[in-house]
Amino acid sequence: MNPLSRRGLLRGTAGMVGAGAVLPAKVAAELEEVPLDERTGSDDPHTGATYRAVVDVVVPRTPELCGELGAEHGTGGLDVGIDELLPRFIDEFVAPEAAVPGIDLGEANVPGATTEETVPLSEAVAGALEAAAQALLTSGGNEDDPEPGRFGPAGGAFAALSRRDRRAAMSRLESGDGRFVVALVTAFPAILYYSEAAGYEDALGPPSELDLDESDLPGWEQTGYPGPADGYAALRGYEVQQFREDRGPDRDGASESTAADAKGDAEDDDDPLARAERRLEGER
């Protein structure tokens, strides 16, 4: 994927989530615990915390289901590393122009938004989520108090929100120009979790080096999926015992029946397959 200018890619987010996405001073002070130079770059801690928050809300841990459904139903996406795989998947398989068309973090206080260094798409998506969360807090739309450090000290506003407030921030983003951003971060975690991706040491490695370990795939266990099989017994038709050439209509448009055909028909009267073939020929 071609490198992108951070400023060029992150242009217009104010329109995506609503203008004035600036945090109140008290909240901003609580969230700015990590120096700026430690929160930028393709693998920055802020982006990592944002994706942990995304996976936690899309494929959450559900220990409350263990008693009723079994211990395997308590596992979530964070337990199998979907938060680490998701940003790599987005960077390698999604076109930036489709995901974040002309966005700009504007005054949303997203680290590094005003520099000219290159930025991976996953970081831009995290920035859009951050801006949406800040807009939610600024407007007072959150139902719960933010909890800085919920997913590590580098987490920003989005990572500090409760699950329901994170969903509200994503809904706010979806109602603007960020529909595809929300589609990315809601669909892909589930796809990766319930597919075989978690069973590879590196699901995005060269195909020749992939070795599937089916023993640690909670998504398969939770859904009762038995895994790939060579095949299943199923009716695919009947063995054909004989073929008959279809000569088609003669020059006058009438079908021609030979004595041999008539003899064959008589011999086939007790053959269910032959009778079925004759019925099909009569319907042509």
Head-to-tail CA distance between termini: 55 Å
The helix/strand series, from N terminus to C terminus, equals HEHHHHHHEHHHHHHH
* Shape category: elongated
Structural class: mainly alpha
DSSP summary, beta strand count:
2
Task: Indicate the radius of gyration in whole angstroms.
Answer: 30 Å
Give the helix tally. 14
* Strands in their spatial order, largest beta sheet: 1-2
- Helix coverage percent: 40-55%
Mean pLDDT: 75
Low-confidence stretches: 1-42, 102-114, 253-257
* Beta-strand residue percentage: under 5%
Tally of structural domains:
2
Largest sheet: 2 strands, parallel
What are the key terms here?
single chain; mainly alpha; 2 domains; two-stranded parallel ribbon; 14 helices; disordered N terminus
